[in-house]
Amino acid sequence: xETWNRRAFxxxxxxxxxxxxxxxxxSVSTGTVRGLHFQSPPCAQDKLIRVLxxxxxxxxxxxxxGSPSFGRWVxxxxxxxxxxxxxxxxxxxxxxxxxxxxxxxxxxxxxxxSKENDLGIRWNDPDIAVDWPLPPSGAVxxxxxxxxxxxxxxxxxxTWRAAL
Length: 164
Ligand SMILES: Cc1cn([C@H]2C[C@H](O)[C@@H](COP(=O)(O)OP(=O)(O)O[C@H]3O[C@@H](C)C(=O)[C@@H](O)[C@H]3O)O2)c(=O)[nH]c1=O
Known about the structure:
Elements: H1 6-13, E1 21-27, E2 33-39, E3 47-53, E4 55-62, E5 64-65, E6 73-79, E7 86-88, E8 92-98, E9 103-109, E10 118-120, H2 143-146, E11 158-159
Parallel strand pairs: 5-11
Antiparallel strand pairs: 1-9, 2-8, 2-10, 3-7, 3-9, 4-6, 4-8
Bound molecules: dtdp-4-keto-L-rhamnose (TDO).
Residues 23, 25, 34-35, 37, 47, 94-96, 113, 142 line the site of dtdp-4-keto-L-rhamnose (TDO).
């Protein structure tokens, strides 16, 4: 089974993506939230996400200044079983919550990791209001993610342009 084919994807979508790095993460506990992350220009990343074990609700938030959908979120359930993938383009913050224990997420990125450009927005930012499906025990978060700023407090990094 092919999990990524640049030529087929470009033919189907008109988007030619040049992925340069593959990442993988294991989240042991159900309710683990990672996000909402993005890298700032010039190191911004498109991401193609899939799940190797378990299930996630994967979330993308539009953070392009001037966009009609600025600050709004979309979500898709990705699992090892349904084999769905989600493309999160540059200009969107990305995060997920695990819906099963021992969930393994794999994703391709179109720019290399840059610690200096690694930024994020608080997962429970009230202006975005992602409806996270959490277990009764609540969200499991890294210290870094728990302290991320709100969208309203970060300077604009991406600008929306209408398609011609
Ligand atoms: C993302 C990344 C992290 N690292 C290192 C930094 C750190 O020591 C360790 C864990 O990093 P993090 O805590 O940032 O890992 P994580 O919370 O899994 O970060 C990821 O979250 C999801 C939601 C995304 O959208 C990804 O782009 C990425 O930001 O791995 C790399 O070396 N390369 C990478 O590409």
